[in-house]
Amino acid sequence: MVLPASPSARASGAHRTIAWPLALAYICLIIYASLYPFTDWRNQGIFPLKYLTAPWPKYWTWFDIGINLVGYAPLGFLLVLSALRTRRVRWAVTVAALSAALLSLLMETLQGYQLSRVASNVDVVFNALGAWLGACCAWGLEKAGVVDRWSRLRAYWFAPDARGALVLLLLWPPALLFPAAVPMGLGQVFERLESALADALADTPFLEWLPVREVELQPLVPMAELMCVTLGALIPCLLGYCVIRTLGQRAAFSAVVIAVGIATSALSAALSYGPQHAWAWLDVPVQVGLGLTAVLALALLAVPRRGAAALTLLALAIHLGLLNQAPASAYFAQTLQTWEQGRFIHFYGLAQWLGWLWPYAALLYMLVRLSGRERGPVAEK
């Protein structure tokens, strides 16, 4: 299937597409979900691709087929969108589907070396079909002019150098789905990192090199929790202010960010503790923190883009410093076991790593952005 270059693609690259980095992130997700927990490897002594000639399984469900279709459809969609940014796209749908099929083939073959996994030719077929359907959807949107309208909308709302910020903002809601000890609190890794290092260095002289805490981590007091919630919700607002053009757009954007943060946190609680506890996390410190976020987001509407980047960096540093001074509760640890060992096992990898790494990726992005020359003016009125 041959695609002509879209008008947005012919516009000499006014802005860089976010589809390609999102496609790379999704490939990492597929690899993690396919090979998790990365243990119990063994050689069965048979030809690695023998599963491709196996008969159709006797027992299967439409749910399994649906998961395979839906799992690879976004990859095909993003790969075709990435190709649309080139001058001319030849066989974009076919190439995207074949690329996804090769990835699925590799993942299934590697699963054949894991005790906890079973390689399946059915998975390969429906993964490839899902990627093809996603690619066709992107092609259809391009033919309907939706992709070009999105390009114009993005150019109206965001600065040309907004790709990094947009990728981070799109990944923020999935990161919030990982159950956090503090609402909006992403990046709490100190305690787990310390424990992992201690286990890795056990029975070695390097264990003595680890710094020893004189006191154990203490739970956050309500004021510290309030600050974590406030900064955790304010950071994506400030991140958007770095690339959004006008004051009105900033105001609308911050309202959407706060609403999405609340809705995603409620969904996370419902998945973790049950639908009846979807709003149990919304106690008084959290409510006050979210209200303070709205006030600060409104007060900072007119801050210059470079100033917004500096404030984002400061907010990240304070947020991570406060959050990593607190331990995870025992009840929270039990919740993580539900995610790690139960029904969330395949989704666990994405949510876990996004929840841990998102603030540090934003920190790195802000450092890179502030180290360069300012590309955009103060937000327009």
UniProtKB/TrEMBL annotation:
It comes from the Bacteria. Keywords: Membrane, Transmembrane, Transmembrane helix. InterPro entries: VanZ-like. The chain crosses the membrane at residues 18-39, 59-84, 91-112, 124-141, 162-182, 220-244, 251-273, 279-303, 310-333, 345-368. Residues 25-139 form the VanZ-like domain. This is VanZ family protein.
